[in-house]
Amino acid sequence: MTTSEGLPERVRVIEVGPRDGFQMEERFVPTRLKVETVEGLVAAGVAEIEATSFVHPRVIPQMADAAEVLGRIKDRWDVRLSVLVPNLEGARRALEIGGVDELRVVVCATESYNRRNVGLSIDESADRFARIAEAAQEHGVDASVVFGVALGCPIEGDVPIERVVELTERFVELGAAAIGVADSYGLANPVQVGAAVRAVREVLAGRRLWLHLHNTRGMALANALAALEEGVDSFDTAFGGLGGTPVMKGASGNIATEDLAYMCSEMGLDTGVDIDGVRAVSRRVAAFLGRTLPSHVLTAGTKQELMALNRSRASTR
Ligand code: ZN
């Protein structure tokens, strides 16, 4: 369903803070706090969560407790759980624990960045994905792919839209249940996002498309709006605007869950997300990390809160 402006009435927020957010942090986030973060997000109405990554702990020590986190949160709520898996071994570990609805695999849209990220050519990554998808299917689990640096690469710069279209066609054929397009370094602009979404949608063959946007240059909300106007209804977001990639310097936070939920609600679109509940999670994690998080709505509050504040000031004067 879309509104009269052509925007989707319901917007699906996929919370990636427990994975993309925490993976950047040097200080180990205790397993208990990770689990409580997921609990808080579920309580705030988030219906889909990327909970952790089954990457080797040598690569990302922060994710060393992936099995424990998944074990403690699985089957507890009616939410869709996904985990990131870098290879078949990670996929098998996650599938063995169970409770996962979707395995997500990152494949980068440029050869040089894919080599830097996972040490493989895109062809090799495609073979790897095919095996992961097969294992997932055996367990009745979806396997999806997210194209990293698809809207701008820190090594190669601009990425032709045709490349992303070709990748989409190829991975749909390999069994991808959904396709993610990522602006990993916040290099995209809204016109480009609109064009990319239109082109990719032509070859989706009924698969779901979601966007993964970073706010490195302040354009994540504008890029999200461009995608919404093309009818895209699914977005990765991170509470507080946490996140980034440890692969190379120059990446910063994801689009904040609070900010996207607020923009949607102001536009009359339903995300099902309770902004205050997400902010409670953000504040707790910010206190642990000992720094403020970049979400605007976390810092500035909502319009309604601003009005309430100024009304109570006026009445006590
Ligand atoms: Zn990311």
Properties at a glance:
single chain, 317 residues, alpha/beta, 8 strands, binds zinc ion
Strand/helix succession: EHHEHEHEHHEHEHEHEHHHH
Computed Rg: 19 Å
Mean pLDDT: 95
Which ions and ligands are bound to the chains?
Answer: zinc ion
Taken together, the total number of domains comes to: 1
Helix content: 40-55%
State the end-to-end CA separation.
47 Å
Estimate the strand proportion: 5-15%
Sheet having the most strands: 8 strands, parallel, barrel
* Spatial strand order of the main sheet: 1-2-3-4-5-6-7-8
**Morphology call:** globular
Describe the structure.
By secondary structure, the protein is α/β, with parallel strands linked by helices. It is built from 13 helices and eight strands. The chain has helices at residues 17-21, 31-43, 66-73, 88-97, 111-118, 122-138, 161-173, 190-201, 220-229, 257-266, 275-289, 296-300, 303-316, and strands at 12-15, 48-53, 80-84, 102-108, 142-148, 178-183, 208-213, 234-237. Helix 2 packs parallel to helix 3 (66-73), helix 7 (161-173) packs parallel to helix 8 (190-201) and helix 8 (190-201) packs parallel to helix 9 (220-229). The mean pLDDT is 95. It binds zinc ion.
Helices and strands in order:
Blueprint: E1 12-15, H1 17-21, H2 31-43, E2 48-53, H3 66-73, E3 80-84, H4 88-97, E4 102-108, H5 111-118, H6 122-138, E5 142-148, H7 161-173, E6 178-183, H8 190-201, E7 208-213, H9 220-229, E8 234-237, H10 257-266, H11 275-289, H12 296-300, H13 303-316
Parallel strand pairs: 1-2, 1-8, 2-3, 3-4, 4-5, 5-6, 6-7, 7-8
The chain binds zinc ion (ZN).
Zinc ion binds at residues 20, 184, 212, 214, 243, 245, 254.
